[in-house]
Amino acid sequence: MASRKRLSPEASRLAALEAARALLIESGPQSITLKAVGARIGRTHANLLHHFGSAAGLQKALAGHLAANVCDAIAEAVLASRAGQGSPRQVVDLTFDAFDKEGAGALASWMILTGNEDALTPIVETIHELVDEIAPEEADSHEEIMRVHEETLALVLMAMGDALIGAALARSLGLPESAARDRAERMLLSSVPGLSQPE
Q: Which of 111, 139, 197, 198 could form a cystine bridge with 116, CB 3.0-4.6 A?
């Protein structure tokens, strides 16, 4: 009988979060159970209980993990855009993909519907930290900072809504499926200082 590879607590936790992320993308948020994640990585239910406390704890940790990865990518895209090496569209696409292809929209909806709303805290806090980190240096007045916060709120809400109903609604209205992304890009170009279209 082959022995299981011993992982550090951090590596074991990360392996569980990556397995949960894969399950989320493949089968939806209802598939993220301690049993399913344990089976995927060859760990016991007790081992996962030790790391996360419950399935709700696993979902909350997954929300934080997704938010951190996505926000890191968005921060890089924003800074690249300011340096003339990227575009606002990349920022929009990363944000929308996080809620759609990466499953954050489905996970957030599932947590709200199952009464696990506090599991959204890591997503909200991470996005807030991202906005504070990438707020343009010239946004030093309260009004400018609030405007950046408002644009972030609009972008995240658009991405979340698009992930849940965007394609069907766009088709119903006779619009291309990219309509919400196109609108979000125009919003960023017109209102966020420092973002520019690449030459």
A: 111
Q: Based on the number of CB atoms within 10 Å of its own CB, is 23 exposed (0-12), middle (13-18) or buried (19 or more)?
A: buried
pLDDT tens per residue, the chain (199 residues)?
344 567 687 888 999 999 999 998 899 888 889 999 999 999 888 889 888 998 888 888 888 888 888 778 777 777 777 777 778 888 888 889 888 888 888 888 888 888 877 767 777 777 777 777 766 655 567 777 787 778 888 888 899 899 999 999 999 999 999 999 999 999 888 875 555 554 4
Q: Structure tokens of 50?
A: 């030790």
Q: What is the pTM of this model?
A: 0.74
Cα 104–Cα 185–Cα 179 angle in degrees, nearest 5: 75
Q: Work out the burial of residue 80: count CB atoms within 10 Å of its CB; fewer than 13 is exposed, 13-18 middle, 19 or more buried.
A: middle
Residues 161-174 as b or e (16 or more Cβ within 10 Å = b): ebbbebeeebeeee
Nearest residue to 163 (alpha-carbon basis) of 84, 77, 94, 99: 99
Do the beta carbons of residue 119 and residue 156 sit within 8 Å? Answer: no
Instruction: Quickly tell me which residue has 């979340």 as its tokens.
Output: 160
Task: Calculate Rg over the CA atoms of the chain.
Answer: 19
Could you give the count of Cα atoms lying within 13 Å of 67 in the half-sphere of its Cβ?
Answer: 22
Q: Quick one: which of 55, 62, 54, 56 has its CA closest to 13?
A: 62
